[in-house]
Amino acid sequence: MSFRVGVAGHRGYSGAELVRLLTRHPSTQPVLLDHREAAAEGPVYVTRPGMERVDLNTDVVRREHLDLVFLATPPEVSLELAPRMLDAGAPVIDLSGAFRLATAERYARWYNAGHPHAALLAEAVYGLPEFYRERIAGARFIANPGCYPTAANLAIRPLIANGLVERSAGIICDAKSGVSGAGRKASLKTSFCEVTENFLVYGGRTHRHVPEVLMNSCLEESEFSFTAQLLPLDRGILETIYFRTARGVKPDEIADAYLASYRTEPFIRLHAAGSFPDLRQVARTNFCDIGFELDEITGRGLVVTAIDNLGKGAAGQAIQNMNLMLGFPETEGLL
User: Fold this and answer.
1) 115 and 75, same structural domain?
2) How far apart are CA 264 and CA 191, in angstroms?
3) What is the span of the domain harbouring residue 163?
4) pTM beyond cutoff 0.85
5) Is residue 34 in a domain?
6) Distance between CA atoms of 157 and 168, rounded to whole angstroms?
7) Of 44, 55, 189, 284, whose CB has the highest number of CB atoms within 10 Å?
8) Has 218 been annotated as catalytic?
């Protein structure tokens, strides 16, 4: 049986990655949903022979018999489209930040804008399967996590949950992303001459992804420092996370915490203590690779996580969520 799934925002990098993954998924048929004039969005990034393209209007879900809709759109567009698609009866997976923060007050603080759909904010399930698999499987509306918080939460939460961190010393997340994480829209900051042979900071403590880490790893804002940096690469995220351990913590305790959390997870790969992942190992995959090191004398620890920002950080994770929602094997179309 083939499920018809719509993709709005298919002209962007995350949307194009969604289309690529859906075309190789054995149980889905992607339908490209055009919600803006072509001139406003630029040329189609990915097409396949015979792929359907339709205008996204009020009756598209019923007319096209869509079983699910992906929104790979900016937050302001998702705020408009998500309620319409849900009202028409289609489950929705939103790749923007429009519905990730649970309350309108929190959204207003971090996005500097009001939120018109408080009830949907409360309903949306944060789509990190390693944490919320059962809720995702029964949901009709998923807020797909940000790329930076995906890597950070998967590294930090097991440490916090097992009491391994001296929280008063704080956690520092030094995060680096490829340029596709900024989206496809042209800007001076992401132009070739600005990015090539360069390395720069573009987001600090007020980065809008910070609250996703606080919420899902159970941290206070005063306990977490985050810096986003731009790598001269097309894709990939690598985060180096620094912390101090609670008194007397041994490396085996950290290793055991990660193993207990992720031993059965198909998309988490754990490195031996003292061994770290790199971006080539995760490029064009849905994997998150995690490695750590601990200096027992000083209690200083670090964790390195690597993901593909368009894979586990966006489209791959969205497919993982779709598989759970529609009852497919979780790895289908991703391995």
Assistant:
1) yes
2) 41
3) 147-309
4) yes
5) yes
6) 16
7) 44
8) no
